[in-house]
Write a structure and sequence with these properties.
About 45% of the residues lie in helices and about 15% in strands. By secondary structure, the protein is α/β, with parallel strands linked by helices. It folds into two domains: about 30 residues, no CATH class; about 180 residues, Beta-carbonic Anhydrase, Chain A (3-Layer(aba) Sandwich). It has a six-stranded mixed sheet, with helices on one face. Strand 5 and strand 6 form a beta hairpin. About 30% of the residues are buried. It catalyses: hydrogencarbonate + H(+) = CO2 + H2O.
Length: about 210
């Protein structure tokens, strides 16, 4: 798929195929949604969570952005897209699971390590620099051990981004309350594009192991 016309052709195949076969399901979804899981993933075109987890429409509420990041809760000015989506999933849809999924070859994490966009103006890389600045403390810790380049540094940074988002999720009272009451569980995961292996984070050790 290389252009919009190809997308339209893809839609027509979908409408004639999957949509027609699952007509009852789509009729049900037209009345509302009740996903049980919120997935926070990267915008990277290679890591579509609905494909990786082999789910059907309506089963997951998905938020995607550069480096699968959740900002800490803040109530200042500006637009809070991730926070709004998170609040909707938790308080309105009442999901019972939140999964933060990082991945291999993440461009956002790579940019954090290299500081590629530092001091650039918005529209030229400045928005990216501001966004991934959330990773700065984690980056400093990774660089102190692994340096700024190489497979070990990149893997450590990608896993660290998942942990940063999990920590930031717990700055939201609605999440803390539900997690404490056992109504909500948080998970960290990492998808290795090269070999297709999903790794799940051990909540006690913080280490990632194949699922």
């Amino acid at each position: 798929m290389s252009d919009f016309q190809n997308m339209i052709e893809g839609y027509r195949r979908f409408k004639a195929g999957e949509w027609s076969r699952e007509r009852a399901r789509w009729a049900e979804l037209a009345e509302g949604q009740s996903p049980k899981v919120l997935v926070i993933a990267c915008s990277d075109s290679r890591v579509d969570p609905t494909r990786i987890f082999d789910t059907s429409p309506g089963e997951m509420f998905v938020v995607r952005n550069v480096a699968n990041l959740v900002p800490p809760m803040e109530t200042g000015g500006g637009h809070h897209g991730v926070s709004a989506a998170l609040e909707f999933a938790v308080t309105q849809l009442e999901v019972s699971e939140i999964v933060v999924m990082g991945h291999g070859a993440c461009g956002g994490c790579s940019a954090s390590l290299s500081q590629k966009f530092k001091d650039m103006r918005p529209g030229e890389g400045g928005f990216i620099a501001d966004w991934i600045d959330m990773l700065r403390p984690a980056r400093d810790a990774v660089v102190a051990v692994h340096g700024t380049d190489g497979p070990a540094a990149h893997r450590a940074m990608e896993e660290a981004a998942v942990k940063v988002s999990l920590d930031n999720l717990r700055t939201f009272p609605c999440i803390v309350e539900r997690e404490r009451e056992g109504r909500l569980r948080l998970h960290g995961a990492y998808f290795a594009i090269a070999d297709g292996v999903l790794h799940v984070m051990d909540p006690d050790s913080g280490e990632f192991h194949p699922a």
